[in-house]
Specification:
- The chain has about 450 residues and is mainly α.
- The chain has one domain (about 10-445).
- Helix content is about 85%, strand content about 0%.
- Helix 1 (about 10-40) runs parallel beside helix 7 and helix 10 (about 270-305) crosses helix 14 (about 370-380).
- The protein is globular and about 60 Å long.
- The two termini are about 30 Å apart.
Length: about 450
């Protein structure tokens, strides 16, 4: 039975969407984080191998960016169509998303294989770390189609009111990855190759699950062959709204490239490895805050389409309050237990000593990200694509990128790279939330 988000308590609707989505994304992140944990503990080569995996980050982030381009654009449109009872349009949006994700994944695989070596050196690889980056990437790319379709289409399951089934999409793959990682890495002594193979197999299982659900006869919105043929106008609507999600991930990719390059210049391979660990920690700790925003999007979009504007306001207030509280607690945890967090990923004493200070700098004022998540998700859910795109660019491109280059040159060295992030979180987060409050929240009809 499809959920009617215009009924019941708003906060319960948001939580019912967000909690399974939160669990699903935490599990999704474990695909890569578990790889890093096992690889970081490999005898002798662990630190170099971990750094090599970090060099692949920008490419995996770029793949996620193109997934977001279509999924974060299509799912809000799908929710609004459902709220307005436009069933045929909703199903057509689903079919178009399948085609767009498939085309994008094939194109990315081809480009990454062709330019793999020069790109990895551009990202900051040394002769020692390139070997491990190359081993991991050439296997990982084989699962790109599985990864993009399973991740990109899973939002349609959640938007229909089946967040628990959406959670199973990634849970099945993640459990398989958790099991296969030690088998391939240590049991078959395949090292980095083994980590990549386990990831691809787990992605294939997730893909099979989500596609089988969306093809099921009992499901109201199904993938139909007649909806796969692209209509230029609908493609434009999907991509224009999805540009925000693309820019957020795309600018993350750009920041990762610049960070790795500057860290390699001022600190060497070890600091690229430290950033790999910090990125892993950030991915995990950001999930509850970001998924509160993502979980609220179907509720916001549905109620906006149904003209239930007071319920839209309640959802925004609730999302902001809970996200802020959680991210404040997460920041305190990082300040109290930095060495314990780092030791999860590596046993290298030098990396832990240097990483402790870097971790505290990078996460300073982490709670400001709650404002970014709330503002960004509200803009996206209500179809305000241009504003969502602007604040994505503002935080990453206008603030953090120049600071990542300027602060190390100004004499701060590697510390400047880590300080750039909290400055951008504070300025960008407050700017996004303030703009959302005055241009959307205050202007919703009563």
């Amino acid at each position: 039975m499809q959920s009617d988000f215009s009924q019941g308590k708003v906060w319960k609707n948001v939580i019912n969407q967000a909690v399974p989505l939160m669990a699903a994304q935490l599990i999704q992140i474990m695909y890569n984080v578990v790889d890093r944990i096992y690889i970081g503990h490999l005898p002798v080569i662990g630190s170099d191998a971990l750094t090599g995996i970090g060099l692949v980050f920008p490419i995996t982030t770029l793949i996620a960016a193109f997934t977001n381009l279509f999924s974060t654009g299509a799912v809000p449109l799908f929710s609004m169509a459902r709220g307005a009872k436009e069933e045929e349009r909703a199903e057509k949006i689903l079919g178009h998303t399948v085609t767009l994700l498939t085309i994008a994944s094939i194109a990315l695989i081809a480009l990454c294989y062709i330019f793999k070596k020069p790109v990895l050196y551009l990202f900051g690889a040394s002769d020692e770390t390139y070997v491990y980056a190359d081993r991991y990437l050439k296997i990982y790319l084989m699962g790109t189609v599985f990864s993009m379709l399973s991740t990109g289409l899973n939002g349609f399951i959640n938007a229909q009111g089946y967040p628990r089934k959406g959670m199973l999409t990634v849970m099945l793959g993640a459990i398989i990855n958790l099991i296969l990682d030690p088998v391939f890495i240590y049991g078959f002594k395949m090292g980095v190759y083994g980590a990549a193979i386990a990831t691809v197999i787990s992605q294939a299982v997730s893909f099979a699950w989500v596609v089988s659900f969306l093809l099921g006869r009992k499901n109201m919105y199904r993938i139909r062959s007649c909806d796969l043929k692209l209509d230029a106008k609908l493609v434009g609507s999907i991509t224009s709204l999805g540009v925000s999600g693309f820019v957020m991930q795309g600018t993350n990719c750009l920041v990762q490239i610049v960070c790795n390059k500057m860290l390699y210049m001022y600190g060497g391979d070890m600091y690229v490895g430290i950033m790999t660990v910090i990125n892993s920690v950030r991915e995990v700790l950001s999930v509850p805050g970001s998924t509160l925003g993502s979980g609220a999007q179907p509720v916001l979009g549905y109620n906006y389409g149904a003209r239930e504007y007071e319920r839209v306001r309640k959802a925004i207030r609730f999302t902001a309050a809970i996200a802020f509280t959680y991210m404040l607690i997460a920041w305190i945890a990082v300040l109290l237990f930095p060495r314990e967090i780092l030791s999860i990923f590596t046993t290298d004493a030098d990396m832990i000593d240097a990483g402790e200070h870097a971790l505290k700098l990078y996460f300073f004022g982490f709670f400001f990200m709650a404002f970014q998540f709330t503002g960004q998700s509200t803009f996206t859910a209500l179809g305000c694509a241009k504003r969502a795109v602007f604040f994505s660019i503002f935080r990453k491109v206008i603030i953090v990128l120049p600071l990542t280059i300027i602060l190390p040159l100004a004499g701060l060295g590697v510390n400047g790279v880590f300080i750039a992030e909290p400055i951008s979180n504070a300025i960008g987060g407050l700017a996004s939330f303030t703009a959302m409050y005055f241009t959307l929240y205050k202007k919703l009809p009563k």
